[in-house]
Amino acid sequence: MATRILERERTAILNSLAAGVVPRIGLQHIQVGRKREVAAVLEDLMRIESGAAAVRFIAGRFGAGKSFFLNLMQTVALERKFVVLRADITTERRLHASNGQARALYSALMQNLATRGKPDGGALGSLVERWVGDVAHSVTGAGGNEADVEKKLTSLCMPLQELVSGYDFATVLSRYYKGHTQSNDALKASALRWLRAEYSTKTEARENLGVRSIIDDSSLYEYLKLFAAFVRIAGYAGLIVCLDELVVLSHRLNNRTARENNYEAILHIVNDCLQGNVEGVGFLFAATDECITDKRRGLFSYEALATRLAANRFAGEGIVDFSGPVLNLANLTPEDCYVLLLNLRRVHAGGDESKYLLSNDGIEVYLQSCQQRMGAAYFQTPRDTVKDFIGLLNVLQQNPSADWRALIGQLKTQAPAPPESEVAVTDHDDDLASFKV
Questions:
Q1: Cα–Cα distance measured from residue 162 to residue 182, given in angstroms and rounded to the nearest whole number
Q2: Closest by alpha carbon to 24, among 192, 349, 196, 244?
Q3: 163-188 burial by CB neighbour count: b if 16+ within 10 A, else e?
């Protein structure tokens, strides 16, 4: 039986794909292929639930579906009661920096924090409020008072104090509870500001909350580990950190030293996850193939990462291994692309077959046109195929007398423009270097 399509999901899917971006909701209505890749990440989630850690690099060409895959895995993780942090890496938001860029990345992650109850992000406040409220209700329901609640919160936060900066983290949570009991919204807001890394000076944080540290560029990863421990204390399965656009570090960050410092930060994460030094956290990085394998600017330019991320030598020629950190997204097949368009037609019609605007034969003719115009790219990187298909359905819906054959025939046969054109990358360390990005 087909899944019911909510209007909110329908609108988000159609508007996102028509604009060439990935929808955040309703992915189950259009997902095709990737079964083995999804199964591999599901195994990671199960290991994280049991207290382990995982790191994955989702690799593929531009338009191959990396962002879609991250969104899909976010949806799956939320259903399994994970907390998910999500952000795009930019030149102003990265893992290592000295001018606030790393703190900006942490702030973006916290602003986009999602839970099953608030899958669209902005869930930090509700997460903390629910936790302190549940603890208070449990203690007072057993006859305790506010002092007993504070003792319980302190006891629950004891494991955090074993981690770097854990004492101040626990102190901020206790300040939030104080604001909760006193109906002091300003104190609660200050605690959330601190947790979102929005304090730029220690002096202001000490005046407002009585803590001596803040989340800054040098402590991003340490606080991610702290937050992973906290969400497990709060009753969640674990923490998933999704970082998209890793290619920015390799092909947009021009300074070699800055790139290598960020690669060192990634190496730290990889080592901790592979060696079992962290618990209850998973990292998903989305990167292009060149971002990983380019030996001049990519992750493989950093020897230690090249070793950690190297492919299994026994894999290849139809033999796959999904146990390594790098998860290469297989290209969609023509059949997958056909099923994808069937799914999109159903979404566009709101699940009502009587409202289908294009027959199966029409979809086949459209795909033949795409093949003539774009070659194998029409199904391997189907972004343009999908975007034009949504446009075709929109035109047919608004112009009932239009002939779909004529509309498809109007599309000129031309080679597709690459999703990202060849861009000359100039920096002071890599002169005269040109890379396809």
A1: 29
A2: 244
A3: bebbbbbbbbbbbbbbbbeeeeeebb
Give Dmax over CA atoms of the chain in angstroms. Answer: 76
In the block, residue with structure tokens 């509700």: 126
Question: Which two tokens mark 18?
Answer: 């028509």
For residue 276, CA distances in Å to 47, 268, 382 come to 11, 12, 38
What SS3 state is found at 62?
coil
CB contact at 8 A, 57 and 266:
no
- As given in the structure block, the two tokens for residue 427 are 């920096």
Distance CA 23, CA 291 (A): 24
Task: Express as a percent the part of the chain with pLDDT over 70.
Answer: 93
Q: Summarize the confidence of residues 189-193 as an average pLDDT.
A: 97
* Measured CA distances, 298 to 90, 122, 323 (Å): 16, 33, 22
Interatomic CA distance for residues 65 and 47, integer angstroms: 25
Whether residue 249 has pLDDT greater than 80: yes
Which pLDDT value is given to residue 437? 34
Residue 276's nearest CA partner among 77, 85, 41, 54 is 54
- 72-85 pLDDT tens trace: 999 999 999 999 99
User: 26: how many CB neighbours lie within 10 A of its CB?
Assistant: 22
Question: Which tokens go with 224?
Answer: 């991610």
- The CB density around residue 264, as the number of other CB atoms within 10 Å, is 14
Q: Interior CA angle at 299 toward 297 and 304, to 5°?
A: 120
Q: What region does 267 belong to: left with phi over 0, alpha with psi -120 to 50, or beta? A: alpha
Phi, psi (deg, nearest 5) at residue 92: -100, 0
Quote the strand ranges of 41-122, DSSP E. Answer: 53-59, 83-88
CA-CA-CA-CA torsion for 347, 348, 350, 352, nearest 10 degrees? -100
Task: Yes or no: say if 396 and 402 are a contact pair by the CB < 8 Å rule.
Answer: yes
Mean pLDDT over each residue of the chain, to the nearest integer: 90
- Please state, in angstroms and as integers, the Cα–Cα distance from residue 104 to each residue in 42, 259, 270, 292, following that order: 30, 17, 22, 24
The structure's pTM equals: 0.86
Strands 326-328 and 53-59: parallel
274 and 52 in contact (C-beta within 8 Å)? no
Closest CA to 189 of 203, 201, 172, 167: 172
